[in-house]
Amino acid sequence: DHEEKRERDLILIDYDDPGRNVFEVTEEWAFHNGHYGTREDVVFLINGIPVLVIECKNANKDEAIALGVDQIRRYHRETPELFVSQQLFTATDAIGFSYGVSWNTVRRNIFNWKLSDPQITQISADSETQENNLRPSAKSADKYSEVPGRLEARVKTFCSIPNILSFLKDWILFAEKDEELQKFILRQHQTAGADKVVERALDPVRTRGLIWNTQGSGKTYTMIKAGEMLFRAPEAEKPTILLMIDRNELEDQMLKNLASLGLGNLEHASSIARLNQLLKDDYRGIIVTMIHKFRDMPADLNTRSNIYVLIDEAHRTTGGDLGNFLMAALPNATFIGFTGTPVDKTAYGKGTFKTFGCEDDQGYLHKYSIADSIEDGTTLPLYYQLAPNEMLVPHETLDAEFLSLAEAEGVADIEELNKILERAVNLKNFLKGKERIQKVAQFVANHYRENVEPLGYKAFLVGVDREACAHYKKALDEVFTRMGVPTGYSEVVYTGNNNDSALLKEFHLDLKKERQIRKSFGKLDQQPKILIVTEKLLTGFDAPVLYAMYLDKPMRDHTLLQAIARVNRPYENEAQEMVKPHGFVLDFVGIFDKLEKALAFDSEEINAIVKDLKLLKVLFKNKMEEAVPPYLSLLQHNFDDRDVDTLIEHFRDPERRKGFFKEYKEIEMLYEIISPDSFLRPFIDDY
After folding, report:
1. Strands, E, within 214-299: which ranges?
2. What is the pLDDT of residues 346-361, one digit of tens each?
3. What is the mean pLDDT of residues 204-217?
4. Is residue 319 a contact partner of residue 357, using CB atoms and an 8 Å limit?
């Protein structure tokens, strides 16, 4: 205010009383910044502020939605001014409807808008009365072509006023990833999960809940958002919210992400004494801490009921006495557990159900399963292959020292797993045999160079312990040197100790170097290509370029699922010539030979995640026998000029070219994944 020389608060959008806002929609929104001009198809405005753009493409164009997204990317590059206020973008081809958040146009952060059954029923009922209002104007009719009912339902649910206001107010967040601040939009399962957490926390009767969101589907953001919404909810009456995590490196990340939400009331309880003090002093706000800070905490430390405890990886963190200390210290609090792996069938898993899922019929407050996640493309299926027999652990040893041990059942923590493996003397001796390590290193190097590197991706080699990792690093360096490959091709990442042997100390990393390795590994064009790990980075590390895992450490249940989930993150580069098809695990132990024993979960869940590579062989064989012969029959004269003429004539039609290219890319991908394998010998000439 220039007159009075003071700042005044201005409300741009009234979220509390939506009726006070003016909502408008316009077509052909033109803008020119002096260098470039754009014309956006449909723009939604609130109080004259453009907040949402819809790019409409004709469905008979191939990859129409991808073209729409490319156009949005061009707008970002050429007219960035538009995206100061436009927070949301969507692209539709009258069949699909995809949405994303401005300044984040990477394919894996653009999602399909899905309809729930109640929404479809509601829309069907409404549409008869509103049919005439929904006809697109003649000017844009060519872009919409036919408008199927489902598109109408998608547009109506996505663009409904309450939904757009929720996105703008609650579901867009800034978080640090790879040491850069990035903008994210939550997916439907995340928004539903966060809403359920708030609803349960404010329920006067029920005080427990279990959220199962498959690993890699963004459960940490669900947790952060639920915490923020609870803190801001007037009904919570200035609550205390504990966000409990189970690993040091996550603590730092969590604090940064909460700070970027602009929350003032945020505390880090980094010690037992600090946590005790905060709870005793009745602190109101969000506290980030770890479960082990509750050790020996006195009972009834704070008896308020508006204390909400959100616990990450609940299947792991509340086992044993720590959970008892926690629940006794805060007897009237609400406890919500989050888990990324299915609840297993063991007594341990049933305990998680009992603790958190006891107040819901299904055992879950909210569930986003592995099958859901694969269907949505938020994670990928995994294919596995067993290494040659002579490298696999003898069945009897694996069974006696690991798979049949009662204490190994349902093991949820890598530290616990390591303790079990320390006692497995014969198993470890076999895995760390000098000759075997040389053999495995040679096999890994060949496999990586022939099968993974040509696809452009990276790999993990998982050793049984830190010593095995150090030996693998030396063996790989030797093999790669013989191949003429630089030594920086592989790196070892493990936690160093002052009492370590000279061998282990050789590969100690300072924090700066480790951070650099993690960052470079996430980039396609940088080394290292292979990370050698045993514990660190097997949980919570997210690198979409990671495609292959060479598994040489016996694992099972949660630890196995968490480890192999490192390779199930989708990857797609901007140009879309690299689209990661799935994750791949090459098993040097023999765990996958006994899958039903190694993964004590519901078989439906397991079938959704892990598939034998043999299935790909069947697929390849079928394609070579059915799809390929018509193409080969075009070659009558051993590829001379007459054949070339025939081919040019045949492929003049763009549809035929497109069909051939799609078929060829699929066959090529299958061949690369299966190779090297004698199975391919009869197909080589035709391929």
Report:
1. 240-245, 266-268, 285-290
2. 554 555 556 777 777 6
3. 85
4. no
- What dihedral do alpha carbons 424, 428, 430, 435 form, nearest 10°? -170
Strand duo 97-101 + 88-92: pairing: antiparallel
* CA trace torsion 164, 165, 167, 168 (10° rounding): 120
What's the pLDDT at 61? Answer: 65
Closest listed residue to residue 440, CA positions, set 398, 492, 392, 493: 392
Kindly state the helix (H) or strand (E) to which residue 679 belongs, with its residue range.
none
Q: How many residues does the chain have?
A: 687
**Alpha-carbon span 216 to 583, nearest angstrom:** 13
Phi and psi angles of residue 87, each rounded to the nearest 5 degrees, phi first: -90, -30
Backbone dihedral region for residue 94 (phi beyond 0: left; psi -120 to 50: alpha; all else: beta): left
Query: What are the pLDDT digits (tens) for 424-481?
Result: 999 999 999 999 999 999 999 999 998 899 888 999 999 999 999 999 999 999 999 9
pLDDT of 677 higher than 80: no
- Give the angle 30-35-38 at the CA atoms, nearest 5°: 25
CA distances from 321 to 295, 411, 439 (A): 8, 16, 44
Report the interhelical angle of 219-232 vs 188-201 (nearest 10°).
Answer: 40
Using one digit for the tens of pLDDT, what is the confidence trace for 616-675?
A: 788 888 889 998 999 999 888 888 888 888 898 898 888 888 888 878 877 887 887 777
- Taking alpha carbons only, the member of 334, 74, 297 closest to residue 204 is 334
Asked if 220 and 350 count as a contact pair (C-beta separation under 8 A), the reply is no
pLDDT for residue 342? 67
In the chain, the amino acid numbered 577 is E
3-state secondary structure of 382: strand
- Specify whether the CB–CB gap between 420 and 402 falls below 8 A: yes
| End-to-end C-alpha distance for the chain, whole angstroms | 74
Buried b or exposed e, range 351-382, using 16+ CB within 10 angstroms: bbbebbbeebeebbbbbbbbebbbebebbbbb
Q: Tens of pLDDT along 506-564?
A: 999 998 999 999 999 999 889 999 999 999 888 778 899 999 999 999 998 888 888 88
Structure token pair of residue 42: 């449909």
Nearest to 583 by CA among 403, 374, 415: 374
Evaluate whether 632 touches 664 at the Cβ level (below 8 Å).
no
Q: Please, what is the average pLDDT of the chain?
A: 84
The three-class DSSP label of residue 383 is strand
Contact present, 244 and 289 (Cβ < 8 Å): yes
The kind and range of the H/E element at 508 are none
Strand partners, 88: 52, 101
- Please tell me the distance from the alpha carbon of residue 536 to that of residue 543, in angstroms, as a whole number: 14
